[in-house]
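so my prof wants the structure for this chain in the tokens format not the other one, which i didnt know existed until like an hour ago. anyway here's the sequence
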Amino acid sequence: MTLPTPAVSGADPHSLAIVGAQVVVLDELRELDIGIADGVVQELAPTLQQTYAQTLHAKGLVALPGLIDTQVHLREPGLEHKEDLATGSNAAAAGGVTTFLEMPNTRPPTTTQAAWHDKVQRAIGRSRVDFAFYAGATADNADELRGLEGRPGHAGTKIFMGSSTGTLLVADDAGVRTHLRAGRMRVAVHAEDETRLRALQRAVPATRPHDHPERRDAEAAAIAVRRLLDLCIETMRPVHVLHVTSADECELLRQHPGRRLATAEVTPQHLLLSAPDCYDRLGNLAVMNPPIRTEDHRQALWAALRDGTLTLIGTDHAPHTLAEKARPYPDCPSGMPGLQTLLPLLLDQADKGTCSLAEIARWTAQRPAQAFQIQGKGGLVPGLDGDVVLCDLALDAELTPDRVQSRCGWSPFLGQRLRGWPRYTVVRGQIVFAEGQLVGAPIGRPVKLGKPLAIMPGR
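here's what i got, hopefully its the right format
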């Protein structure tokens, strides 16, 4: 491991100078130094003017803003045999993710102020990176959740319009409308139509994982997205459509009048895997909700991401044990891990020419911060938090089990060679991951989200 040079007398003992890195500026790489003190970027310049306690020499590395993952499931409380806040945050740090927003379908679910507060307290002193937690919508807790708005560590409300992992569900328009009227923060939504899901699960045989996209088809997603966008217009409440999977949803998000109140997300799994190949190769490991679909949908997702119809990339990190995933379909749980592999997968795509480094920064840092108005996050800009990931674009390595930090111990991308890996992760000026190793004690703290911009820049 290469550690920073020793402290300089008279400087803030927690300050850090990152020197010689290539930084993305207006779609170009420029060699700039980054000075961080008091947790905040102070300088971004060819030569630093201030004195910093530590110096990290980053010649040959590319600096990106720390990633923000807007959808993770860290399984605590109640399901810690799959993952917990400590192991999940280790995976985040190893993957260059410096802030995560965590989902409420734990056991018990996070549906009260007390349950949300318990999660925040569990994370303090155990998470290596910064965090916030969603609260889960039920038929009768809209007023309860409204009282969380504005508190540090509150990511907003999560609505399941279709049933998935756990028991949370608000399937009818009246229930969704009640929650949309009960606050101002952007609401995150799992948009699948429950009525159609139930009809499909009665009608379509469940014999193998290849049946999964038919039992949760693209029409179920499109129906729910259309209903949601209609309700956006009615309530004027901003929403975030989670894990978009189909060309049908993309077209709605382009054309529907409610699109200007909506941001939308796609996962790396849906960008990089397609049916039936993923089910042939991975079997139950490829099962997630909503499903991986055919190649035409995958190509439509890339097109929608590039043209701004889809706002950002989030992983839907949803770990289960290999023993659980080995249960016969459809009894195997849905979901797969993704926190640690988000950045290496995208860097490998940049090497292949599929996307640019500037797009990666935009999709994983700038736009997540804008969509949720995450204070202090989203870019390598003086005045924002000193969250940095230093990447080696020339490092070509296989994703092996020994690299996996998640407690579940697997990835759908195991065995793949990827070109481009994070070497250092910095949270508010403190190194939390260096040269393959976790560094120091957990320092993560709650982030504060504001009232979102009703219309995202560029939409």
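also thought this was worth mentioning. The chain has a mean pLDDT of 95.
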